[in-house]
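Reviewer 2 asked us to include a model.

Predict the structure of this chain.
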Amino acid sequence: MTDKATGLKIAADMMGQEVATALQASAGSTRFGGQLGVLALDHVFCGIWARPGLDLRSRSLVTLGILIALRQPEELKVHVMAAIRNGCTVKEIEEAIYHATAYTGFPAAVQAAAVADEVLRAQGLIQ
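Predicted model (structure tokens):
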């Protein structure tokens, strides 16, 4: 596992500074579910995204495939933009969705395409 500063930088680069700040602020929270941010920072950003072996772009493509298979449209919205920030192109995201049809089925891929279309249009990345 990497240090928290590196994990926070990865979170900020992928998700935006607001998310990284919220993750950091969750330390010491006493509200219900307040430690989810700490777990996300420690396990996801410091433990998984910071691992050697795959670059962030590759990890984003893997994550998109997993979220498509799990049919998690809200999380997929977040990770479409994270994939762009991690160096994936619009075409690569589109191809990942096409690839998913063979392994997750057309309904999951069609849902993912609609989600990605919404996010990419909102960002002005496609027309």
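The chain has a mean pLDDT of 96. Helices lie at 4-15, 17-25, 36-49, 56-70, 73-85, 90-104, 106-122. We have added this to the supplementary material.
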